[in-house]
Design a protein that fits this description.
Elements: H1 2-12, H2 15-23, H3 26-62, H4 68-95, H5 97-114, H6 117-122, H7 127-135, H8 144-147, H9 155-181, H10 186-220, H11 226-268
Helix pairs in contact: 1-3, 1-4, 2-3, 2-5, 2-10, 2-11, 3-4, 3-9, 4-9, 4-11, 9-10, 9-11, 10-11
């Protein structure tokens, strides 16, 4: 459930771009985007120790003669289930993007009135505000792919988002899987989890974030329409879901690669 929440929150943060164009408060919307993205990554810090607990149990079992093969297979299925939970979270976040957009609009307004982000966030738990958000629960249109043309969004942005999301979804899980596949270098393999996440973060900063920010800036200046921003946000949600599905394909090869790299690092020390 935690992975569902993390991914839903991360995808919902895309709607901050739309709120920035709608209100003209791009700087405030970027702050809200960073807040949601940071919150999802902070939640990930609680999720990693849970993976560690599962991998510790599997690591002890693989050392028992005759149990290594079945235990690794079972553990791999558990890791795939965790990645799939991320897919469900990304799908939930994509479906709720219109609702997230409305919530961000309310957030920007509350921030301007109060001048304090913590005070604005405190409004979220206000029963009246929660009721308003629930009453305005919105979903993407059924004719989404007809209403929003994929040709209006740069291909490099969509492809980059699939790759970044796939790496982010599989990276940490692959490192923990590698620690069970290669228990002799388990600690080295686990230390790679931060590196993999770092690569995904850098790729997001270099590819996805600047391109989406450029589209938002052009919309604010009138060089692009609000519809173009809605299209971008919609397809960022779609490609994020595809990225988490792609994570299933790269999970096992990534775990083998991390395990082999960890082995080579340890060989280099002797």
């Amino acid at each position: 459930m935690l992975n569902v929440f993390i991914n839903a929150l991360l995808i919902g943060a895309y709607a901050a771009r739309l709120a920035g164009v709608t209100t003209g408060r791009v700087g405030t919307s970027i702050s809200l985007f960073n807040l949601f993205a940071t919150a999802s990554r902070f939640a990930n810090m609680f999720y990693a120790p849970m993976l560690g607990s599962i991998s510790d149990a599997a690591g002890r079992a693989v050392r028992v003669p005759g149990l290594a093969g079945p235990e690794v297979a079972q553990y791999a299925m558990q890791m795939r289930a965790i990645v799939f939970a991320g897919t469900l979270g990304a799908l939930l976040g994509a479906i709720l993007l219109p609702t997230f957009a409305y919530a961000f609009l309310r957030g920007v307004g509350a921030f301007e009135r109060r001048g304090s982000l913590p005070h604005a966030l405190a409004r979220i738990v206000d029963p009246k505000v929660l009721g308003d958000v629930l009453r305005t629960l919105r979903f993407p249109p059924l004719d989404l792919f007809r209403k929003f043309s994929i040709r209006d969004v740069p291909a490099k942005l969509l492809i980059g988002n699939v790759i970044v999301t796939g790496i982010y979804a599989a990276g940490v899980v692959a490192a923990y899987l590698a620690s069970v596949i290669r228990p002799d270098v388990a600690r080295t393999a686990l230390s790679a989890s931060g590196l993999v996440n770092g690569v995904a973060t850098i790729a997001f900063t270099l590819i996805v974030d600047p391109t989406s920010a450029l589209i938002v800036d052009k919309a604010v200046k009138g060089e692009r329409s609000l519809h173009d921003v809605k299209t971008m946000v919609a397809y960022l949600g779609v490609t994020a879901v595809l990225g988490t599905l792609a994570a299933q394909l790269i999970l096992w090869p990534a775990a083998l690669f991390i395990g082999e790299a960890a082995h080579l690092i340890n060989l280099g020390r002797h």
